[in-house]
Specification:
- There is one protein chain.
- This protein is an alpha/beta fold and 295 residues long.
- It folds into two domains: 80 residues, Winged helix-like DNA-binding domain superfamily/Winged helix DNA-binding domain (Arc Repressor Mutant, subunit A, Orthogonal Bundle); 164 residues, Rossmann fold.
- It has 14 helices and five strands.
- It starts with 7 loop residues before the first helix and ends in a 14-residue tail after the last helix.
């Protein structure tokens, strides 16, 4: 695992220390020592904490190569998020306290995450994901812990538009057996959310060893599975969650399914007709035409 100083945002600061002004070094030292405080600070608050001007803060993040203070905070947020325990998260600002409007806070954070996704979405990456989903004979969708919820959602949705979909639980060691027995050319999609279960890292490594195409959907550029992936889709969060956020990754999943379904090819139509027939014959779904409406 990476040490504190090896994370990109902290490494950026330490590598630039010698080139920074004395006030810039004060900022750098403060952030390295207090990342969990700094990540929640505005430029004004950080400047006051370090005894410098706001202009110094702006020049500091520019010197590190960030387009703006918001980009720097996002990188710092990703770093802080990977190291927080559950007790740490409970103590985060806004999680608890008298008068806290929980529903309002959750909605605002999800809206901010969706806005960030809208502004940063890699349309080309989505198109490549869809192309792989359309052309691969077999697809294995994997998640673990929180991310298994998303993996099941993606896998279940895929079964409505194509055949050959397998949903694997990363915490089940037989997932390795399934990947080892997968046909040549299989597509593997792993969904990984902070705090990144080790079993998913192992499965990503196994997939690469078997020369399978690996796509990763995650919530941060610091996700340790990215190094193994052929392609990656990132749904970043602007806030640090207690457990996790769902709207951004769910939106990516919906987009992939809609793009795939939009192709409306003959094979998909035949597949859906067979599914509907099986539902009808086995009375799987409520059918208003076959049920007595009277209580």
């Amino acid at each position: 695992m990476n040490t504190h100083l090896s994370h990109p945002v902290i490494k950026d600061i330490t590598e630039h220390m010698s080139a920074l002004t004395p006030k810039g070094r004060i900022l750098g030292d403060y952030i390295i020592q207090n990342p969990r405080k700094a990540v929640f600070m505005t430029t004004k608050e950080l400047a006051e904490a370090c005894g410098v001007s706001e202009a110094t803060v702006v020049r500091f993040v520019g010197k590190l190569g960030y387009a703006g203070y918001g980009d720097f905070l996002q990188a710092l947020r990703d770093f802080v998020d990977t190291g927080l325990s559950l007790p740490d998260r409970v103590d985060l600002p806004g999680i608890k306290g008298a008068g806290t409007n929980c529903l309002h806070r959750v909605l605002v954070e999800e809206i901010n995450n969706l806005q960030h996704l809208y502004e940063s979405t890699d349309v080309e990456a989505i198109a490549l994901f869809v192309e792989k989903l359309a052309s691969s004979h077999s697809v294995y969708v994997i998640g673990s812990r929180l991310s298994y919820t998303f993996a099941y959602y993606l896998g279940w949705s895929l079964t409505k538009v194509r055949k050959g979909v397998h949903i694997l639980k990363g915490s089940d060691s037989t997932a390795i057996d399934c990947l080892s027995n997968a046909p040549d050319g299989a597509l593997v999609i792993i969904i990984a959310t902070s705090r990144y279960p080790n079993e998913l890292i192992k499965l990503a490594r196994v997939s690469r060893r078997f020369h399978q195409t690996l796509l990763v959907i995650t919530d941060s550029k610091l996700c340790p599975l990215i190094q193994f992936a052929d392609r990656t889709l990132i749904a970043p969060s602007r806030s640090i969650p207690l457990i996790g956020y769902s709207a951004a990754i769910s939106s990516i999943i919906n987009c992939l399914i809609l793009e795939l379904a939009g192709r409306n090819d003959v094979a998909m139509k035949h597949h859906q007709e067979r599914l509907e027939q099986a539902y009808l014959e086995n009375d799987i779904l409520f059918n208003p035409h076959s049920h007595d409406p009277r209580p």
